[in-house]
Amino acid sequence: MKLKSNPNLFELVMLLHNATSLLNKEQNLESAKALNFDNFNPDGNLMFGTGICTRKNLSAGIPIDILTYFLVAKLIQDNFPGISIYNILPDAHAEQNQFPTSEIKQISDSYEKQLNAIANALKMQRFYILRASQYSQDEKYVEILSTMSHIENSYIRRQIADVKYLHKYYDVDKKIGWCSKTRTSLSMDEPFFDHVYKETFPNSKVWFLYLEPGKRLSNKGMDVIPYTMAPFDKSSRIVLGQKKKIREFIEEIGDEVCSKQNKAAYRNYLKKIARVYNTLFPNSFGGKFWEDRLDGLNDMIYQLTNNKNSRSFIF
Questions:
Q1: Structural domains of the chain ordered from first start
Q2: Rounded to two decimals, what is the model's pTM?
Q3: Is 153 exposed, middle or buried (0-12, 13-18, 19+ CB in 10 A)?
Q4: Residue 81 — φ and ψ, nearest 5°?
Q5: How far is Cα 302 from Cα 300, in angstroms, rounded to an integer?
Q6: Going by C-beta distance under 8 Å and a sequence separation of 6 or more, which residues neighbour residue 298?
């Protein structure tokens, strides 16, 4: 699944959509057209952020949905082998929600170990985790923040500054995010932040790629943030490192919690993830069924997470 030499942005968008149906095609084509199909730097680096909290709760674990970010990043890096991938861990942003500093650090440490383990399992090259607390006091970052005093919301300022900082000092011009299917003009999701970024820095050439939302087993709305998990969703989402097999986990959910139709939709979502993984790593774990491949990958991530030397596996 390789592109020709020097592909334009349209060709990359279509490659990704042919490789995986996890992407929001309409939003991505709109984003690509805004940047200009032909004005694309294949050597520019890639970023994505994986939050550790919602407005009200720190994450109760990393859902399996986060694999969508890594698999798409892997597809892009396989086609442009020279690029680096930067994963922002926004611990400093979580502090603005008044969560205890000790709990933020504990969750950030856990996330970092598991995110590195995913990168190892997928054999990603030049994968780096940047904690926001590591650069939030950098004078260059502070200077960027100072240019956005017209944006009253401090959280929005940080979101915009993160992208500008990596674009300017880490040569990032590709950003992966997610987009709600039911978004409105009031939605404060990633397309909202990216729109503010483009308004604030209209000459900055950054391409924004959008994934579909994560999923949960529920009759009260299935779409959720793909990289964080609210405590009340622990029984309805598969998390990295869990011992229970996927098939067993889904079957144990009663129809009063999640209907057969919604279970089928959830299975189809996981099948898409498994299909992309199998494209990258054909016949992995020798499983005949998609559940076996994802269970095997989850087991590998768990083993790498708990290996003290797991960082050394990054290629």
A1: 1-315 (3.40.50.620)
A2: 0.90
A3: exposed
A4: -60, -15
A5: 5
A6: 64, 238, 240, 241, 242
**What are the phi and psi torsion angles at 166 (to 5°)?**
-70, -35
d(CA 45, CA 82): 8
> Cα–Cα distance between 68 and 81 in angstroms, integer?
19
Residue numbers in the chain where pLDDT is lower than 70: 1-9, 11, 17-19, 25-26, 28-40, 182-188, 286-287, 308-315
Q: What is the pLDDT of residue 312?
A: 35
SS3 content of the chain, % helix, strand, coil (to 5): 50, 10, 40
- Position 5 scores a pLDDT of 58
At residue 7, the pLDDT reads: 60
Rounded Cα–Cα distance for residues 147 and 93 (Å): 19
Helices (H), 139-287: 139-146, 154-169, 190-200, 246-251, 260-280
pLDDT in the model for residue 179: 85
